[in-house]
Amino acid sequence: MRVYKFGGASVRDAAGIRNVGSIIQREANNDLIVVVSAMGKTTNALEEIVVSYMAGRADEALLRWQNVVIMHELIIAEFEFPSDLLAPIRATFAAVASKLAAPLPGEAPVSYDAVYDQIVPIGEVISTQIVAAYLTHIGLPVRWADARQLVRTDDTFREGKVDWATTQSLIQEFMGDQIGLIVTQGFIGGTADAETTTLGREGSDYSAAIFGYSLGAESITIWKDVPGVLNADPRYFDETVLLPALTYQDATELAYYGATVIHPKTIKPLQNKGIPLYVKSFVKPDQPGTLVGAVAVEKPTPSFIFKVNQLLISLHPTDFSFIAEDNLSLVFGLFATAGVKINLMQLTALSFSVVVDSKPDRIPDLLDRLRTHFRVTYNEDLELVTIRHYDQTTIDRVLVGKKLLLEQKSRSTVQLVVRDNQ
Ligand code: ADP
Ligand code: ASP
Ligand code: MG
After folding, report:
1. For the domain that residue 132 is a member of, what is the CATH number?
2. Based on the domain organization, do 71 and 173 belong to the same domain?
3. Which residues contact 249 (CB under 8 A, 6 or more apart)?
4. Which of ligand 2's atoms lies nearest the C-alpha of 124?
5. Whether pTM exceeds 0.85
6. Quick one: which of 205, 262, 259, 264 has its CA closest to 236?
7. Domain range for residue 314?
8. In what helix (H) or strand (E) does residue 135 lie, and over which residues does it extend?
9. Could you report the per-residue pLDDT of 231-254, keeping only the tens digit for each?
10. Rounded (10°) angle between helices 122-137 and 58-77
11. What share of the chain is helix, strand, coil (3-state, %, to 5)?
């Protein structure tokens, strides 16, 4: 049994869905679990609907929702599905519209993240309904599985923590002895109280690993718009090379430092059960791509990871106290409460600097809280460049036209915080 995961880019239009169908068809005689994300940029559109809805702008939310419906209807129209295949999709559209039309309940404080997890998962529900309808339409017998009932999480909305034992038995029970072809959603799960949760943005890779782990899959393949894992993101780097094989450790570190091709949580469950992960191109499915697993990599290729839109925050105690001894647990507590992850940190006697993603929904509040304890300075619009298996030539290459604000080196990795030289 294998797990295939298809992300938003692979199913963004009817041609994409046909292509996904042809990749699945090659596995027609094998058990296959297909994990699918929301189509194209649907998740972003749904996030905007949450913003409108939470601001009490129900009309705007409904209007935005209509645009999401139209986008999906245009895709469906190309397939000319019979009415029995259209019915569940249209039922989902109607259910969402009536939910959005209902006002927020009274004066009771409603958690933004809980509402988010009621609205944003719809993208995955619809995409899997459409993909399942398409596969049925081309004659592949398929079962649609509801990940909200199979991937059990706690109620940390927008970042659900997986209950592995329960998830494993729920998935095994649903699949039974004859798995066949299954289509299910990435990114979403549910609590014991049947509330929907999400696993964090871009979490569908992780979902594929959850299904693979729970069933002891032979392998997982995540199908991408790139030939595999490259030594840099081709959006930021011209001359990239394919990394044909990576150890679990290398893949974990690349993802941790921000190589967005694999979601950081994906590797651990696979490593724990020794399940190989293939990263392959949905455009050229016959190419070998990248194998992540128990492989020996003799001479690692230097890899570059760019994180843009970074903020360097420096904290200075106002009373000249040593920051490490007196303040660090307070600082970490404030970052954790604000839900802001630290990408890099540096300590001096009288200051503590951190680099974080510049998230407008979380940072201003965090800065206010920090200011009640420290003098706070910060630099915006920075890039954090991480080079794995670096040498001086690779560092020099990255620093062309940049000003270096902070540098941190270990034996295998260097991190550079830079800004453009105006
Ligand atoms: P999905 O469709 O599964 O959501 P993503 O868009 O999240 O796929 O991931 C694929 C993208 O990851 C590529 O288009 C590429 O821009 C980016 N990427 C970042 N780092 C790398 C890397 N090291 N190798 C390949 N792609 C990378
Ligand atoms: N659709 C979700 C997102 O865009 C999950 C995913 O694509 O992995 O974040
Ligand atoms: Mg993605």
Report:
1. 3.40.1160.10
2. yes
3. none
4. 1
5. yes
6. 259
7. 303-420
8. helix 122-137
9. 999 998 888 999 999 999 999 999
10. 20
11. 40, 25, 35
Q: Which residues partner with 378 through β-bridges?
A: 313
Is 401 part of a structural domain of the chain?
A: yes
Does the beta carbon of 229 lie inside 6 Å of ligand 1? yes
Tokens of 226: 């790139």
User: Could you say which of 200, 217, 234 is where a domain stops?
Assistant: 217
Relative to the CA of 225, which ligand 1 atom is closest?
Answer: 14
Q: How many folded domains does the chain comprise?
A: 2
Asked if residue 325 is part of any domain, the answer here is yes
- Give per-residue pLDDT as tens, 60-91: 999 999 999 999 999 999 999 999 999 999 99
Ion ligand 3: protein residues whose beta carbon lies under 5 Å = 7, 202
Tell me, using a 6 A CB cutoff, whether residue 121 lines ligand 2: no
In a domain, 158, yes or no: yes
Ligand 1 contact via 301 beta carbon (within 6 Å): no
3-class secondary-structure state, position 130: helix
Let me know whether 212 and 355 are in one domain: no
* Residue 251: both structure tokens together: 């893949």
Taking the CA of 37 as reference, the closest ligand is 2
Boundary (domain end) residue, out of 160, 191, 217:
217
pLDDT in tens, 98-128: 988 887 766 666 899 999 999 999 999 999 9
225 lines ligand 1 (CB under 6 A): yes
Q: Kindly give the distance from the C-alpha atom of residue 367 to the centroid of ligand 3, in angstroms, as a whole number.
A: 29
Say if 197 falls within a structural domain: yes
